[in-house]
Amino acid sequence: MSTPEQEVEYRQHRFSPPPGATEIFLVRHGESAPAKGDNPFDLVDGQADPDLAPEGRDHAEQVGRRLADERISALYVTTLRRTPQTAAPLAAKLGLTPEVEPDLREIHLGDWENGLFRRYTHEGHPIVEELWREQRWDVIPGAETMESFGGRIKAAIGRLAAANPDRRIAVFTHGGVIGEVFAQASGATNRFAFLGADNGSISHLVVSGETWMVRRFNDTSHLQSPFG
């Protein structure tokens, strides 16, 4: 007696990275120390270099716990100390020494470095309004041009991907950098569309050749923070 053939089922596709692709977890550093008029930050190559605030060190610990089991093969930080400070708990858990990628440092804010950007944003400086209207950092006097910033970010991501095929890596970097990466990945005409990644957040990019695929942005579930 014949039996009916089993019906073939076609389940929904689940994403997997293409062969040779690199998965990059972009971590925004933990909260840094507040700017104070009578206590300016140290500078590195003209850029503000504050320590992590106590809250930022807590962010770093929570990031370390979140990523410890994610099969990460390499860690990268920038020249500004808040990124290696944020990476330190994960580096200790994985037994990895972070490598420095200087081109993933934050946008250079020119005359508004050393805490002035925070102050002028709080005070509602008219150039802040122009910055958001024009979607350009370089409306700030002396700031790095958008072309320079975007070019170095694209080149750095390309280098890291080329050096890490079929691997997962974690990059500890800055809010402006993460915003630029995801604006480029999505082709957003609004260059500031992805600004505002939270301190200690994790964003996830897959790079396959010239193709950048967005997997997640501003994941803060490990921080146990409510929706803002």
Automatic annotation (TrEMBL):
InterPro entries assigned to the protein according to its UniProt record, in alphabetical order: His_Pase_superF_clade-1 (IPR013078), His_PPase_superfam (IPR029033), PGM_Phosphatase (IPR050275)
MF GO annotations: phosphatase activity
Signal peptide: none
Pfam annotation, one family: His_Phos_1
GO CC annotation, single: cytoplasm
SMART domains, per database record: PGAM
Region feature (Disordered): 1-20
Name of the protein this chain belongs to: Phosphoglycerate mutase
Organism, scientific name: Amycolatopsis keratiniphila
Domain of life according to the entry: Bacteria
Lineage: Bacteria, Bacillati, Actinomycetota, Actinomycetes, Pseudonocardiales
